[in-house]
Amino acid sequence: MITHIEGKLVEKNPTDVVIDCNGVGYFINISLHTFSQIPSNEKLRLYTYLLVREDSHSLYGFSSKVEREIFKLLISVSGIGANTARTMLSSLSPDQVKEGIASEDVALIQSVKGIGIKTAQRVIIDLKDKVLKVFGMEELSLAQSNTDKEEALSALEVLGFNKKQSEKVVEKILKAQPDAQVEQIIKEALKNL
């Protein structure tokens, strides 16, 4: 019903904002990702989703249409409510959620507070095809880069490096060079560990 709200930013908190739109103040729930994207200036536009329940009408705001689309997909999964979806988008960026689902990364989805292994698996089973279709992602390229990442991580672990540290370094390398091969990832990681 309400697709976006544009107006003057009156109040800004990590979980919500108030936007004055022609004299009406809208209380909008947001994720930490959206919070970090909101500029400090007065004029603001958020893409919104109105969640109507028996006991309340809640407005959720997003800095991009992509984030809103991911939110809508997440709340379509049984066991994922609006607050859990917002927590997921606060813990992970929309791109991380998209890629985690598309590459069947159960551990990544499960790393979000309040999501167990069964729910993480359900999210992936229910949404993988939708994510690939809606965002036009290639399944093979994700699987390939994920395999390179896993090979590099296991090699670093064999070399005696801490798994958590290695994951952080490898993630940074893959963000900078998404097409990096296994050897390249390992060489770069060794320089940074």
Describe this structure in words.
By secondary structure, the protein is of the alpha+beta class. It folds into three domains: 4-62, Nucleic acid-binding proteins (OB fold (Dihydrolipoamide Acetyltransferase, E2P), Beta Barrel); 65-134, 5' to 3' exonuclease, C-terminal subdomain (DNA polymerase, domain 1, Orthogonal Bundle); 139-192, Orthogonal Bundle (Helicase, Ruva Protein, domain 3), CATH 1.10.8. It is built from nine helices and five strands, in the order βββαββαααααααα. The chain has helices at residues 32-37, 65-75, 82-91, 94-102, 106-110, 117-134, 139-158, 163-176, 182-192; strands at 4-12, 16-21, 24-29, 43-52, 57-62. A five-stranded antiparallel β-sheet has the order 3-2-1-4-5, with helices on one face. α4 (94-102) crosses α6 (117-134) and α7 (139-158) crosses α9 (182-192).
List strands and helices in order, with pairings.
Blueprint: E1 4-12, E2 16-21, E3 24-29, H1 32-37, E4 43-52, E5 57-62, H2 65-75, H3 82-91, H4 94-102, H5 106-110, H6 117-134, H7 139-158, H8 163-176, H9 182-192
Antiparallel strand pairs: 1-2, 1-4, 2-3, 4-5
Q: In terms of per-residue confidence, which ranges show pLDDT below 50 for 5 or more consecutive residues?
A: 140-144
Task: Enter the CATH topology name of the largest domain.
Answer: DNA polymerase, domain 1
**Share of helix among residues?**
40-55%
Spatial sequence of strands, sheet with the most strands: 3-2-1-4-5
Q: Would you tell me the overall average pLDDT?
A: 85
User: How much of the sequence is in beta strands?
Assistant: 15-25%
Distance between the termini: 50 Å
- What structural class do helix, strand and pairing data support? alpha+beta
Radius of gyration: 19 Å
Overall spatial form? elongated
| CATH homologous superfamily annotation of the largest domain | 5' to 3' exonuclease, C-terminal subdomain
CATH class of the largest domain reads Mainly Alpha
Count the E strands. 5
